[in-house]
Amino acid sequence: EPAAGGGGVRLRGKADPSAPAVVSPYDPEARYRGRHATAWTGYVVHLSETCDDDAVHLITHAMTTDASVNEVRCTAAIQRALAGKGLAPSEHLVDTAYVGAGLVVRSREELGIALIGPSRSDASWQAKLGDGHGLERFEVDWERQRVRCCPQGRLSSAWSPLVERSGRSYVRVLFRKSDCSTCPAQPLCTRARHRARYLKLQPRAEHEALKAGRERLATKEGRRAYARRAGVEGTISQGVRAFGLRRSRYRGLARTHLQHVATAAAIDLVRLGDWLRLVPRAVTRTSRCATLTA
């Protein structure tokens, strides 16, 4: 990668994994990204659009980052940009990659925006078992600072507010060794050598925000409201298929962003024309397999 101050190159050390790696000699700002079965070198565009049922759906903001930037790092910047334009939504429907517990809380408290989207599922082995005792099976009493294991009714024995090296706060909850060692559900709850379960809780506001979000999307009304976000997938498809959105015509982040803004404006013009000519919006295509199983 280029050496600091320009001129020459230096070897990027293993102790510096966060340093950006140049992957193309033709565009030093382009970065590599792999997602599922797709991999590319370049950039990522993040599109925001309106989704009111009785109005034309228009792209209101286009943000461009290099491909290495994770989506969750873009949510706050997108919301601030929309607020700066006077276009802050009351509800911001986003994909899972844009959701974080802290973002849900800050969006509500600082901008009055309800950030709605599926949060990442519990990746613990207990949750993957299906009948295991994941975090959602514990009842947290924040006032009394204790946790109850709902299936067995055991109460925690210790509650310790702590801070990680990164500065992030959390609560460590411990259960009694005597309770866990004699519990019939112990194989579904902990594999720790000391046979006592412990939990790592996010701060109360974040914990409750994620819980409320999951409960909302578990209802039929919540799923119906969130289904409006599917329109932006159609927008991305339209941009790729009709406007060449997937391929950058220029080099560099700034010029690529200009292309994305121009593409978004072109899509809006097409949609306004269809709206004025009373052309109905296309509905989401239903596959033959889904039709047969309906």
What is the radius of gyration? Answer: 24 Å
Major β-sheet profile: 3 strands, antiparallel
Could you spell the SSE succession in H and E letters? EEEHEHEHEEEEHEHHHHH
Query: Any low-confidence stretches, pLDDT <50, length ≥5?
Result: none
Number of helices: 9
Structural class, by secondary structure, is alpha+beta
| Secondary structure: number of strands | 10
Output the strand order for the largest sheet. Answer: 1-2-3
- Give the overall pLDDT as a whole number: 89
Helix content: 25-40%
Measured distance between first and last alpha carbons: 54 Å
General shape: globular
How large a portion of the residues is in β-strands, by DSSP E? 15-25%
Question: How would you describe this structure to a colleague?
Answer:
The strands form 4 sheets. A 3-stranded antiparallel beta sheet has the order 1-2-3, sandwiched between helices. The protein has a 3-stranded antiparallel beta sheet with strand order 8-9-10, with no helix packed on it. The protein has 294 residues and is α+β, with helices and mostly antiparallel strands. The termini are far apart. The model has no long low-confidence stretch (mean pLDDT 89). A hairpin with a 5-residue loop joins strand 8 (158-163) and strand 9. The protein has 9 helices and 10 strands. The longest helix has 24 residues, at 253-276. The chain has helices at residues 75-84, 101-111, 125-128, 177-181, 204-217, 220-226, 230-243, 253-276, 288-293, and strands spanning 31-35, 38-49, 59-66, 91-93, 114-116, 138-141, 146-149, 158-163, 169-174, 198-201. Helix 2 packs across helix 5 (204-217) and helix 7 crosses helix 8.
